[in-house]
Amino acid sequence: MIYFGAGSEHTSLSDEDIRAGLFESFDRMGPVRKILVIPPDYSRYHSRSGEITSLIYSYFSDSVQHILPALGTHQPMSSEERSIMFPGVPGHLFKVHDWRRDIATLGSINGHQLRNISRGKVHYDWNVQVNKLLVEGNHDLILSVGQVVPHEVAGMANHNKNIFIGTGGPDSIHKSHYLGAVCNMESIMGRIHNPVRNLLNQAELLFSDQLPRIVYILTVIGKNDTGENVMRGLYVGDDQECFEHAAALSKRVNFEIFETPLSKVLVYLHPNEFKSTWLGNKAIYRTRMALADQAQLKILGPGIHTFGEDPIIDQLIRKYGYRGTDHTIEAVNANRELSESLATAAHLIHGSSEGRFQITYAPGKLSRKEIEDMGYSYESPETLMRNYRPENLKDGFNTLPDGEEIYYISNPALGLWTTNEKLK
After folding, report:
1. pLDDT tens-digit profile of 260-282?
2. Are 372 and 311 in contact (CB under 8 A)?
3. Residue 424 pLDDT more than 80?
4. Can you tell me the distance from the alpha carbon of 100 to that of 76, in angstroms, rounded to the nearest whole number?
5. Whole-number Cα distances in Å, 151 to 19, 177, 251
6. CB 172 within 8 A of CB 165
7. Which are the contacts of 326, defined by CB distance < 8 A and separation ≥ 6?
8. Which residue segments constitute the domains of the chain, with CATH numbers given?
């Protein structure tokens, strides 16, 4: 059921609106004894999930037993990041999701079902894995918090993705990501129904009885007329309808749709949020459907210092590079180390232009050789910032003093840029 739902393209929920909507929902849930909260990590700071988690703690207090950020394969949050994102929440409540070791397997979905879901693209079994705290923590309620926004793997982020991938294990993360990549992410991004989401829904249908009751708190974030992030929607509920309401609003709020493809795009990656190409390649995922053939995509990432969030994955990215779908599939078939890290293979596919447009990276702490070895072009951040100063640009089309026209995106995590032709 939906406990609370409010939102539209023009809604701007105030702090008091958010508080009232959450507390109304919590009142309707009745008493609970032990709560596990699953918010996103710092890379989703703009989701407002941190503030919501703080409100959860202020309402339920000692009933909040644990907070498990849905890291997936991301690096653990620092104590400074936790204090910024989750003000007023005691640090001892936070647990780190170790996606390789702290795992419980609920069951599996067999290869025949995967073959049907993928239309023959894959045929492996898929183990449904979650952090063991979800199974062994003796909680009677999970509050899963996060933003619904277009996503390269699941079409639209959040809902049961937060559980089965965000707190998932090697099998659930690797194979779900590869499923999305080989099924063509451009036919998945921004779609509510797609092969990966179908898989996640199947996992929830078959295995949710092994977990505590889950209530989802879903936000939709957009920009107002002055370019500030505002909450356009808030939905609280324990069913698929809750997610579909939020996803439908996100499609209206978070899409930028063009009649004509873009020829030159600059994307800025804020150094506090984007420190790896694993995250920073949202600049590629989220813009690729709007880019013309032979377009220039320039990525300014002053905080980028590594490729993978995980040392093992980082090594694999460095070894195989962003060289397109065919090259990556061949490498998966020929190399066990990559076939056992299918999320890495998926990321390599996502991060390639497939030779259709040019990607130029300007990272803060990666060398020209490191970038060019990956298949990208390199430009120093100093040069790029000298030519295109982010503080002088507005989101959208800009005409520079010399007459150059460029489309600027200040945060690629907040939307999806595409054309009408790609949405058909």
Report:
1. 999 999 999 999 999 999 999 99
2. no
3. no
4. 13
5. 27, 11, 11
6. yes
7. none
8. 2-253 (3.40.50.11440), 256-423 (3.90.226.30)
Q: Which two tokens stand for residue 215?
A: 């209530």
How large is the average pLDDT for residues 58-85?
95
Question: pLDDT at position 127, please?
Answer: 97
Confidence (pTM): 0.91
Per the listing, tokens 């999930």 go with 49
How many whole angstroms separate alpha carbon 411 and alpha carbon 286? 10
Give the residue from 84, 188, 73, 177 showing the smallest Cα distance to 418: 188
pLDDT in tens, 314-344: 999 999 999 999 999 999 999 999 999 999 9
